[in-house]
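Hi, here's the filled form for the chain we discussed.

Project: internal
Contact: R.S.
Residues: 284
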Amino acid sequence: MQTILRSKTKTVKIDPNGPFTIIGEKINPTGRKKLAAALQEGNFDYVRELAAKQIAGGADVLDVNVGVPGLDDVAVLPQVVQLLGEEFDIPLCIDTPNPKALEAALKVAPGRVLVNSVNGEESSLSNVLPLVKEYNAAVIGLVMDENGIPNDPETRCAIAEKIIERAARLGIPIEDIVIDVLVLTVGADSNAAAVTLKTIELVRKNFGVNINLGASNVSFGLPDRDTLNMAFLGLAIHAGASCAITDPTKYTAFIKGCDLLMGRDAYAAKYIKYFRTHPVEEKK
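And the returned structure, exactly as it came back:
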């Protein structure tokens, strides 16, 4: 089951059988003061810089979020989406909780985008899914609802089913739903990663859909975050995840290695190609 995204000329296929799809996370002002300031000033040069670095690092898709307090996202989000669509040939993931900003961005987005996101709350389902249908987009479905994020895999899986069923009523095919199984920090709950991994297995088994996660959430508040993030990514890929919103400048090499070891890279061709353009620095 493939989720198809497009830019002006490129097609990205998110596929449960790989290779793993990398969605670049850096165009998001949360915790990034420099980006937040640039967006408030209407200076998009730093957005361009972040896009270029992520593409060079190995991103397949770019997440685009302009959520700064006080910023008019209905005006700014479509500006940024249009800019990225015109200047870079890569599919986009439009990341906003505001349906008005989402629609404004969908109107100018090139190709076929991924909407980030819908969840199991009634207000979200009724506001977001019709836009996904109208603009022929794909959508990330978060396994949370009015009661928050469940602590057990079965309830998360039930919310995934609810999202898939509501989308189907509108004629949105199941292959256009990417379920985000949600990742919480193991610093607050040592069982959090295990719950997410079990949810991946259940969603993959029950629905066969593509599965996304925000991988770096797992290590929040802990030392040596990169080590934890890579360990978790490897486990998630093995469990059945097919894409992640993460940092391509840090984790692409690791992900290419996972694809190779999972039997998704014939003759190590993609792995070798990556290191031809991203040589490893010799350790002294």
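Let me know if anything looks off before we file it.
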